[in-house]
Amino acid sequence: MINLKELLSLESCWERLEKTDKPILIYGMGDGCLKLMKELKKRKIPVSGIFASDEFVRGHYFEGHLVHRLSEIEESAVKNGYDFIILLAFAAGYQELITKIDDLEKKHLLLMPDTAVIGGEPFLKEHLNERYNDFESVYSMLEDDISCNTFESVLKYKITGELKYLRECTTTTDEAFENIIKLGTNETYVDLGAFNGDTVLDFVERTNYSYKEIYALEPNKRNFKKLLKNTENLKHTRTFNCAAWSENTTLIFNTGGGRQSQVSKKGIETQAVSVDSILNGKKATYIKYDVEGAEKEAIKGSMQTIKAHSPKLCVAVYHRLFDMIDIPLQIEKINPNYKFYFRHYPYYPAWETNLFCVNS
Fold first, then answer.
1. Total structural domains in the chain?
2. How many CA atoms lie within 13 A of 348 on its CB side?
3. Which domain holds residue 72?
4. Radius of gyration of the chain (CA)
5. pLDDT tens-digit readout, 100-117
6. Between the chain's N and C termini, which has fewer beta carbons within 10 Å?
7. 151-155-161-163 Cα dihedral, nearest 10 degrees
8. Is the pTM of this model over 0.90?
9. Confidence at residue 224, expressed as pLDDT on a 0 to 100 scale
10. Are 86 and 192 part of one and the same domain?
11. Residue 65 and residue 265: Cα distance in Å, rounded?
């Protein structure tokens, strides 16, 4: 059972910022900074400045603030005898950058308020209270101690903004594949959000190129070209320049770079298909969902496959505010025979938290 009393007793990052008398400085620019500034403004919490790593500063301004170098900020603090609070406004997904942030955190109070990838609203303690029964239901479904620890630690991070809670529950992709997914040599893999083919190539390496079939979907045209090139020599591989959805239709997608293609009010028309329509009754043994906030719709489009064949599932549960409870409950309703696991991979913030489902 989740210790609700303990979680609600934690001081939230917003409570902490509202009562501090230390200067608050945002580290980083772009969309993450804008989301933080919006929430700080709403709460009437003043921002003392913005800074970036030394190599990115060119004497420019962001949202009316001169962007300082980190070294300038630290030199000024030492000279004038004060300390400051850092709000981290960019994601870190590789070890060199994670280590840099960890080292900075040893010298200064550093917080990373959690905001949803889609929507941008922060997670609040009130959300935990409002939907406690759902959080408790999902927690009771979890299969092992690592999953329970991950679930609670991610919630603690979401409340406090303290990265130590993510470090406490971080595991590796190898651990998940070895102990949960356990790929065989006759897999049919459906990769939803295949990007440039990196997860397809990881799959074939883990199966030692012994698999039955691969279906890879990627809506972004630039990414799709890379996907085609990177998988052109793979056998039994079908690629689709489509989005994964609940039905076959046309959607409007933005054209953001990298992995950030998502349903939007503005963008380009993109074909969307359901997994069930692509497979047409054929068996899938493993499906990966990382579709930038469309996970629930993509799962709807896989309902017949999930019911009939109980494929192993890996689902990103961090794009929307309540994905980590809504998605497990959705899948459990479709197929109650699954065992459920949570894992968090090395990443700041909690944007690499994944749900794994395997047939019991």
1. 2
2. 28
3. 4-123
4. 22
5. 999 999 999 999 999 888
6. N
7. -20
8. yes
9. 97
10. no
11. 30
